[in-house]
Structure formats: C-alpha cells, structure tokens
Design a protein that fits this description.
globular, 2 helices
Length: 115
C-alpha cells in the first residue's frame, strides 16, 4: 500500500498510540487513498493532501486535516460519493474507518504525530 517501516508507523497524540498507520508516500497512493477497500484497519496518512473524496467507495470514512505543526484543524465523517472542500496550508490528511476518531478521542486542536 504505502510505506510501513519495519518498526511500524504509529499515529499518536502525545505519548498515546491511536493506531497503526501507513503513509501514502507516492502521488498514486495519495490519489487512490482507501478506494477499493471494504474495511480499514489502522489509518492512512496522506502527506500534502488538502482535500479527499469518497467517490466510488462503499464505506464512510473519518478524515482529519493537520497543519504544519500536526494540529488537527478539521475533521469529517464522509459518506460515499462526497468530497471535502480544499483546505490550504495543510500538511497531511488522515483517513480511517468511520467512527474511529470518536473512539480514539480525537478533537480539533489535538497534535497528531507519527512515530
């Protein structure tokens, strides 16, 4: 799918691990995102992505956008066949299964890191 380092990628807030993470580190992987998947285990990190869509997807997803500091500036639950409005000055988007952000306790203003 994307880069998964041997020691693993972890999506974190402070010292708390939220989920395993895969980094979509090519343009092709960023464009595809979670398209074609029936479920989502972990999170997909999309560097430099200021807008996402669920065109052709069969499941809703949670999406968040972080600024250059890693602070969450926007969060959505996106049903199939929707698109987010473009956001400027975004450092990364994170996609995962719908409902995960609530379960993980993520809120606007939290600082997300990858470890």
């Amino acid at each position: 799918m994307g880069t998964q380092h041997p020691e693993g990628n972890w999506l974190m807030i402070d010292d708390r691990v939220l989920s395993s993470a895969t980094v979509a580190d090519t343009r092709s992987l960023r464009r595809r995102g979670l398209l074609g998947q029936r479920d989502c285990d972990g999170a997909l990190v999309l560097p430099g992505t200021g807008s996402v869509h669920t065109m052709g997807m069969s499941m809703p997803i949670d999406v968040l956008f972080c600024d250059r500091s890693g602070d969450v500036v926007a969060m959505y639950t996106l049903p199939p066949w929707r698109i987010t409005r473009p956001r400027w000055r975004i450092s990364m988007a994170v996609e995962t299964a719908a409902g995960e952000f609530e379960r993980w306790g993520i809120a606007i203003g939290d600082r997300i890191t990858l470890a």
